[in-house]
Structures
1.
Amino acid sequence: MKGNEAIGEAAIRAGCRYFFGYPITPQSELPEYMARRLPAVGGVFLQAESEIAAINMVYGAAGAGARVMTSSSSPGISLKQEGISYLAGAELPAVIVNVMRGGPGLGSIQPGQSDYFQATKGGGHGDYRLIVLAPASVQEIIDLTWEAFALADQYRNPVMILSDGMLGQMMEPVVLPTQEPPVLPKPWATTGAVNRERNEIFSFFMQGEQLEEHNRRLEQKWQAMVEREKRVAEFFMEDAEIVVVAYGTTARIARRAVRQARQVGIKAGLLRPISLWPFPDEAFQRAARKARVFLSVEMSLGQMVEDVRLAVNGQVPVHFYGRVSVVPSPDEIFAMICQLADEEVAVNGSVRSA
Amino acid sequence: MAVFARPKALTEKPWHFCPGCSHGIIHTLVAEVIDELNIRETTVGVCPVGCAVVSHEYFNVDMQQAAHGRAPAVATGIKRVLPERTVFTYQGDGDLASIGTAEIIHAAARGEKITTIFVNNAIYGMTGGQMAPTTLLGQVTTTSPFGRRQDTQGYPIRVAEMLATLEGVAYVARVSVHNPKEINRAKKAIRRAFECQQKGLGFSLVEVLACCPTNWGLSPKESINWLVENMIPYYPLGEYRLPKEVQ
Ligand SMILES: Cc1ncc(C[n+]2csc(CCOP(=O)(O)OP(=O)(O)O)c2C)c(N)n1
Ligand code: SF4
């Protein structure tokens, strides 16, 4: 299946029956897929007049108790930020897909990874968090989309799938889920106050103290996510001295480079964050105890590398290699690994020990 | 015997609105219609950003509060999930005719089966009296301190007339609540708008001319006169679309 379509099929199998979107390359196959498939399963596809309208339709549908999704690519996600902040503030579950392209501005339609800050550090206004999941294969797209709906319901919070143009267009054989999706009751939904107290969904608090109380309660939710939802994949990490860090498309390529390095006797390993928020920092701290150097590889000028540095916390040097809206080749990354290996040898042979 | 009992579709919460503000009357009319149609338990409302931002505390129905201008999109999401429910938005003129112009036009063009109560007080109330898209030419506001000029600030938008050109619109009317006779007419229009939705005819909207004494800088009584003398000539009252099913 194609990456973008795989998200759609996984969502439908996870019980998503409502999709509101607006076309943008390189994600349009996803709304197109939903337009074809949703009516057949009794769902609704609606092409909104803008990304702003689409995310607010998601807000309404989520508030009415539905499993609902929207997708876009970088410039469109910028427009959705208002709605994402409102979803988080009003505690509504929804899945938002960003098939990243290059930026800033209109950028390019080639794959990019420069929305990392926007995805993981907020993007919209206010002190909110999203669970951000970054798949690296079409199968993982399916597995994480399925999980995203369950996580959104569990925490009553939006969850973002951070894909990119390369993963979106890639075709791979997959196994689709066939089990029944988990369903949580939603007694808070605004479905009409039949035989119950009425429900209110809002994010406005007139008094500062009330808003603080609300935010403190949300903080506990963010904390629970930090404790329970960190995900990471490790490759050749048992004895890694040079730790390559990458996510999504870049991680697939870095994996090849790491294998090449192993073939020439360099002890390289790959640490691949799957949850970009919460960031799997313990895995980095563990790795930093054994490694000599880290190399963060991204399709950006350096965004995730800041979280890598925070997690490594000065224990070992953290280097960065980035391309902008150009997919790096395994050889480029391999060359970086070799360079770091040489530098390390040189440093070890002389001054290093401090 | 109580002749004017509090509608069941209103909570006990006292208004926060200023003296002479029309929002309270309009809330009451909507609540009375909900009671009369016996849809309190099957209605979901969407409140705006503006002076009616907390109307989820007043309407005794399930309510969602939307981002500034986005209520028609939020209502669309609700209605698509719950097609059997009655869904309405309650919006001011800044909310609907400025930041949310795209959302209202497209909800109307889609023929979204929702009802919008549009409160036109020709000014931004909540943020302290700035110019609205509905502010009249010559009208002084905090951001048109020399009076609105058409050559630099453009013309006020007639929302009811504009939406009446769209095929998806089933019912659109402009009413006022400045005296008991007009209040009765307004209520009838609101009722028709909800009935259009119940009958699945399409999008319905009632524009209600309203007073904002606080930001107009007038007494409640002067405000009524100002509305009659200035607003009604530019914003004529009437039904701009009326399907035969609700006549
Ligand atoms: C995105 C955004 N922009 C601006 C505001 C500030 N704001 C709050 S209310 C309002 C105007 C409301 O005016 P109107 O819709 O006419 O309602 P009224 O208060 O007059 O009833 C504005 C601009 C906001 N809350 N959100
Ligand atoms: S500011 Fe104007 S619109 Fe707002 S409550 Fe007061 S009178 Fe009403």
2.
Amino acid sequence: MTTASSPAAGARRSWAGRPAWLALPAVLFFLVVFVLPFIGVGRVAVAGDPPAGTGTFFDLSVFRPANLLDVAGERLFRSVMGVTVRTGIIITGVCMAVAVPFAAYIHTRRGWVKAALISAVALPKLVNLLVLLYGVLLTLGSGGVINDVLLGLGIVDQPLRLFGNLFAVVFTEVLVVLPYPVLLLLAAFEASDSRHFDAARSLGAGPVRAYLETVIRPAWPAVVGAAIISAVWAVGAFVGPLVLGNPPYYTVAVEVYLRALERLQWVDAAGWAILSVGAFGLALGGANLVLRAIQRRSAEPRGGASA
Amino acid sequence: MSVALGFLRRSGFHLFAATVVAFLVTPFVISLLVSFFPGRSIGLPTIETGLTLDWYGIVLTDPLYRQGLVNSAVVGVLVAAVSLTLALPLVIGLSRTPRLRWLTGAIVIPATVPTVILGMQSLVAFEALGIRGSLLSIVAAHSLWGLPLAMLVLKAAHDRLDPGLLEAARSLGAGAARATWEVTLPLLGPALVVGAILAFVASLNELVMSLFLAGGNVRTLPTVVWPQVRHAVRPDVAAASSILLVVALVATGLAYLLWRGQTNRA
């Protein structure tokens, strides 16, 4: 054990031992570029509309909390929230229905096949959204690959209209969201102990049952977590509904974009943004609490609190 | 009977996986193929039509596309630099200050917020500061994504470092700063490059925040391509998209090789 020879040496060691100040630049950046602007959106949401001819987008001399009540009371807002929630649930459901078995498939592969599958899953996250959108437009278009195949096989006489509908929105957004649950589940499955699987097999369980019991069941919190992450991205859906959907499929994100950048109604856009973040934050925060409760319960030793 | 059922089950599983892979990969392959189609309309090149690189020539010589490409590259490099400059001291600081570990979760929050919300708040803040449409505003907004990526990569690499090496340097008389400079930084070298590349790729691929902030001469390539994807599907858009695809894939491949080198060394 060493002792400080002087106050200066002590101060130096304290600096070296706990240099918390090194985190300061990142914390300041986080506050200035993320937290304060979010508060700013909240302030704009309760500001006044700008006086005509001023060239501004809001009037901060006005403080009108009733703006938020006006937005919440709008029939369009409630309807778009409904569309967003419905679309989000469908996207999350499809993602999870694909992600769990696909992550299990990747988990059971080895070598270059596994590496190639992981690369394929990560691809939509590594490239620009526009590349993905463009590819989807060419895949679903009237002269696209799917219609070409269907026409070529004689299954249909006329090209099907595959975009401008819910199918196209879900198709696009599943491509955007799917990498998250698959990679998260894969990480959880990789953490499983393969000896448990072998033990279950030696006790007579078939491969599917053994896999379900020793790999997927212990990873249940990760399954719930993957569903929450998918839902976060699904309710934020923007490019799919805007480019491949139609106004009936527009989500809150699309409406915020249209109000802010095309109609220049910043006060209205800020109100939509704040209310939707609040609503989805509450819903997903609640889901997160449920997840933690599940994790706590699964961490408790079986047989209850008999200890 | 059970052998036949097992075979069917395995075949079904392979077929399912092949369908998912086709679903994930097809849009990108088609986008790439269309960029080589010689006609003025959209189509897939065949032996009869042949291939062309004309659309790439158009994209690389068109002033609007070229400016977008240069802006994207400049913004990407600056985002990488900002992200590393903030992430490296943060990771070192957090590793020695356990009570601040919660900051790791806080810094990742922007990566989970819908990009339209990030765009809206950046729009309001940078308009109020009078810098909306500037390079600075786009770099700052993109760094909201770059910083968490760089931090997570550096943290993973830093956690693998042998603390004995730093202690050895300190016991030989090096101060905290010198030990970090002489020991920690060289060992983190590949992770620094990986973090920079991932932040660069995230910036290169970012569309939504750029839509809210771009303006005047400061337009990134995705914002140049965006109106054409919304309103017209042309082969030059496929070429521009494919350039983004190739740059992102090459950069990510490089990052993967460097990361593998780092983990093998640890």
3.
Amino acid sequence: MKMLKRKSLLLMVVVLLVSLVSACSGNNNGGKSNAGNTGASATPTPTVEATADTAEPVEITWWNFPNFTALDGEVGKFEKQIIAAFNEKHPEITVNLEMLTFDGGPEKLNVAIATKTAPDVIYDAPGRIIDWAKKDLLASIDDMFTNEVKADITPAIIEQSSVDGMMYMFPFNTGPFTMAVNKTLFEEIGALDLLPLDSEDRTWTVAEFEAALKAVKEKAPDVIPVGFYAKSQAGDQGTRGFLTNLAGSTFLNDTNDSIALNNEGGVAALEWIMKASKDGLLAPGAASMAASDHNDLFLQGKMAFAINYSAVLKTQFAPNKASDFEDILLPYPTVDGSAPKLEPFLGGLAIFNNEDAAKVEASKKFIDFIVNDPEWSVTALKQTGGLSARNSITGIYEGSEYAYSELARKFITTPPTIADGYAEIRTYWFPALQKVLLNTSSAADALAEFETLGNEAIAKGKAARTSN
Amino acid sequence: MSTAALKSKSRRKFKREWLTSYLFLLPALSFFIMFVAYPMVHGVYISFFDYNLTNFKFIGFDNYVTLFKDKNFHQSVINTVVLVLVAVPIVIGFSVFAAMTIYKKHELLRSLFRGIFYLPAVTSVVSVTVVWNWIYHPNFGILNYLTGLVGMKPIFWLGDPNTALMAITAILITTSVGQPIILYVAALGNIPISYIEAAQLDRASSRQIFTKIIWPMLMPTNLYVIVITTINTFQCFSLIQLLTSGGPIYKTSTVMYSVYEQAFSFGNFGLASAMGVFLAIIIGIISIIQFKFLGSDVEY
Amino acid sequence: MKAHIEAKLGTKYNNSKNNKVKKKSFLKNLTPGNVISMILLSMLSIIFIFPFYWIVTGAFKIQVVATQIPPQWFPLDIVWDNWVTLFKNPVTRWTFNSFFIAVTEMVLICLVSTTAGFVLAKKQFPGRRIIFTALIAAMALPKQVILVPLFTLLAKLGWINTFKGLILPAVGWPFGVFLMKQFSQTIPTEILEAAKIDGCSEVRSFVTIALPLLKPAIGALAIFTFMTSWNDYFSQLIITRSTDMMTLPLGIATMQGEYRTDYGVMMAGAALASLPMLTIFILFQKSFTQGITLGAVK
């Protein structure tokens, strides 16, 4: 009897405890939250602006996409080394690292921003960063740029890092996106002369390109001549670069306020794609292929040309090649063989404005360390495999393809990523390509529809900006 | 103790009994209110706002108006309905067939088959999609290799608007028959064997036995399986996110995927919540219809 | 007393009695139709086994072999490279996280559901119907619908990327309460009444009479909860942030790059994530089956 009483008491206590935990938890504001909470952070931070030389302890959060090649195959290892090196100079700043992934990462950022738990430092590409800057979510880092530094960066890159002349991203690693060819395959089929490798800048015409594709189809029937993909947004700079050069047009007009691709050239380019698909020159099933599938085919030697490549990717892919073939960078072909327009990939760092001056200051110090530290900036750049966004820093890498990559920088144009509403424009591009590839609509109709939707997105983006 | 004394005692105890009941409920209820009920109400609330990365503005029913105008959302609703109409009957048919086949077999054999059909359901959805992505792959997929052996042309299962939704449905079916089969085997085991033996003595054909005796006895299980499978199919999301991202040309986008895409890819939380509310209402209506329609001849 | 309860509970769900098929009917079972359906079923079961087989074998193939046509049905040279690559990631930490989250959820859900399910099934009190209807209604709703408001709430509490944020919301999900209510209904009211007349307190009759009877149910619920949590992907994706808080499914998903997918490593990860579940399922198939069956019976 007594036993039972005790047992029942015990149970009551447990039940009560559990309910207390659940009922009262609303009153505590979480012990240690990693997110840059506004106002609710556990440590009281001074609201007065911290001067540069106070050693007041600050905690910042850094979110990073896999921009650096994983050191020893371990995700986040290199980032931790950078933080350790930074802490030797600034022991007062604690940097919490969070690694993002390409799938799920963008979603995570959206949710974090909407719930006011954004990180302090983000290392990403201008596509998203500039979109945030326009929405007034970032802290300006204009004071980090001297005139000397600005002069050392190509205007196209400055444009991608700023909004209304105000810098929001510190550009770090870059390089042109190009095509790639399996040179070894062309040697085997004795068609090396069809590739534009004798000129230094390797420019070529669509006709020459077609001849090379036909040679592959004829002499290596098991190999897909050229890849294409339209499953999702990932890697869309490849399809964009390929088609705009084929069309002899730009994606957007000069002032980035309307879609420019819907012209004769654009329709002709899409029709070329349709025809190539029918003639078996283009990868079958392209509509459902993702950029990664397309690269896989190339790396396995099952495809002669890849349309989304760069010196960086070449380095990253090296261990994944099925056989030891030589992959060579080539510019996209143009109708008349004139200079191609290449989009750069660009990575850079930005700071979310979490309304805490001390955190913004600390974040600036951290970014400055990564991009300007004499020793670590070079190490970090090498880890990305990219070229420096600064014109004066060259010759970091060995090899012919890096040399070509440096040379091809002269073809770089401003990409459409800086347009208002760009994030939304992207979401209409791959469905338009799918329609063409699947023959569910004509090239002209698909482009016209894309133009309408794209222009609406730009208008919406502009309206959102002015209302802010 | 006299009965009168007992009665008065029980009346006094009555209130105390309530108190104990509430105490027993309290923990579960507090969790439920905090993490399910409150967010649900809050979700309805934000569906009336233009809520995105930078705005939080009351706009009344505008999100709902946007929904009804959005062609891609229409497509998603159609896809969801197709998915339910195709998957649910197949799941029921297959489960009944499998259960009928194995329920009289040796215990070991029964366990083995139950296990096999439950396998895809216990495997993490991430793992399942990785494999199926590979099976369906246009260039090095096993399926195209096999169909190629018998002389068929390669099909881009997940990339062709005509086959993509069916390809997804096939995977969904493999992951949803495990539980129904277990239920049907149990239900069949509960049918008194004397009924069937009596019918056999009356020279009833096995088809008659099935339609006249077995099927009516399975009715309560049918109801449960249909409701559960319908709800699960409505919530089909991870497969689509990991395999097709709703493509090609929105042919595999479902309502659930639209909710995710709007909220997390585009940051339109208000619109996404409106879609969620819409979905919840639809699921509610369907569940009620199923109970009314199928539950009428089920005795509880 | 005990026999009395068993008599009440036993017959309803005991297949064994009915399934003692006589020899005569066993021979009758070997009709052509029966043989055909058995063969058909065995062929269909290949579709169910194959993905699993492919995960396990794929984990031991290098990328080139894994994606070759014609496929290598059986890995000719077994390589461990994928596992080496996999374990360069904090896989042990991810596995621990998956386990810790699943076990904690399991314990908490079993605790709160058993008491709540019991009183919902066996006690009369004002508001009972409303509470139960609310719980059932919530069960039909997709979790993703409440994810945005739930996330906002967790952010306010500062629970993002914490175990609290990963575990506690799942405890609110009413499935457990529903299951335990279904089970509790099988407890004969007479026994509880008798205990009351004997002067047992509510709590005491719950502990001494109901709990022992509910043991198998709690076991089934525990397995269910563990499995759901282990295989969760979506809510964990949104609530975790740092690598060290990731669970196994999330960790596997991170191995998908933007420009290429390493199938072999993903397969190794998938195998690692699936094996514990499979083992649990094989070991506890009985409780499992019982849980699934009882949840469905009104």
4.
Amino acid sequence: MSRRARPAGRGRDVVKSIVSLAVVLVLFVVPFAFIVVTALKSRSESAELRFTWPSELHLIDNLVTVLETRQYMLVRAFINSTVLTVATVVVVVVLAAMLGYVLARRHPSRVRSAISAIILAGLIVPAAIVPTVWLLQAIGLYRTIPGLTLVLVAYGLPFCTVLYRAFVSTIPRELDEAAMIDGAGPARLFFSVIFPLLRSITITVVIIQSVSVFNDFLHPLYYLPGNENVTVQLTLYNFQSQFNTQWNLLFMNILLITVPPLVMFILFSRRIVSGMTSGALK
Amino acid sequence: MVRIRHQYSYWFAAPGIALYLFFFVVPSLTSFFFSLTRWSLTEWTFIGLDNFRAFLDEPFLSKAIANTFVYALATMVPKVLIGLPLAAFLVSGFRAAGFVRSVIFFPTLVSTVGIGITFRVLMNPTYGLIDQALGAVGIRGPEWLSDPDLALLSVAAVDVWSGIGIATLIFVSGVVSIPQQYFEAATVDGAGALRRFFAITVPLTRPATATVVILALIGGLRAFDLIWVMTGGGPGFASDVLGSVIFKQYTAGFYGLSTAGNVIMFVIVAAIAYPVSRLLTRREVDL
């Protein structure tokens, strides 16, 4: 993507590289390095909050202590967050793909533009939180993972539908017609012809949604209060008071819950990047 | 009975629409009603506009509204002013550009809670790395998060730090879509790098600018989690925004007042996002 066509002298290239690396190192790498070195320190050494390499590594004991805290609460939180993320992403992908497909294929009509307008509003308008709590209580899903899943699906649908809709409109209609002539019904047409063709956008949606659900703090805070169904972000938030003087453990916690998004990033960085921009620019 | 089966039946879209209507649209619509009540989640008393009056009359609530605007601007403006030149710099082509872009983007993937806690430590006036580094060059660093005049802006700075990656990315895709010939022609005509940036890059990345402005404004107006983790709205109410007031009133059991805050945020976001998006996307710029 980057263009090197313009003639830039070799010397200039080196200067630009060195200067930008230095700036980025100070502004962006140091904070992350700080998280890592603090997570590896002993309790007393971490209390100094200094940016130094630990005198001895406490990787394993810090890790074990964080995991054991409050009867393995972080482990339970990891399971909860994983279940929540997988369930939300699967449901969002299927529903948004179907919705985007219908919106892309239907001819313009009043019904279609009404649906589009309502969905697009969801990209802008902030969710009404307390009435949602009230609603979840009324149907008995407050403080439950299924309840939060359904809410997060609803919040994720607008963005994903927009992506799917744009992508479906690049698939030629002739394909639909060919499948229909071969006798495929609507469901068959979608699930065995169209949906497999959406693979690349589906991967993008899966990555963006899973990172955002896994990192979500606001909605678990409102819809999953208490220690029963805690998620990893809530755990980190709740451990703050307990680990008040144990910065090594707090930063080990941060480090641990950053691993899944980090792995995603390393495996799919190009896709994350293209997906975010295509979604943003429509 | 003749049954016309539509190939692209709305029944296919129905599950998604139903879920969205039930969990997003219904709460949004009922919030207009509940904002007019004193509400215990099980019972409500209609009190008219009292909740909204409270927002306007009580200094700490109306301050939260003002802070929300300050925060939105304080996060949006730097994202544009840093993001666009940075994007132009990154696509100008040098060996480390790809790496630099990835590193800048990385904070996007770290949770807000993690970022908030980390920067609370880094911004500590006595032990924090930032003030220690400033002290090393002879500058007495401020009390980033405990100075009432500075707390909100400190959080905004962290917000810019973590969001600049996406803004830059959007600008990069805008800059690379400009035909290379424009730059070449300008260079032939003797335009320097600065001139090319202002005469070509800035006007022709207008759609990208529009996207960044709108996303940053909406995000800034809805901000909650970073502020909550870093300052809890304090010191005092100095860094309270609508998002944190909504949460505070909710935990205090003032459900009607909390919902009124939500409605105010709804109105502000809609009233700003809609005209801004119209204004910014109105005309394409030609050379």
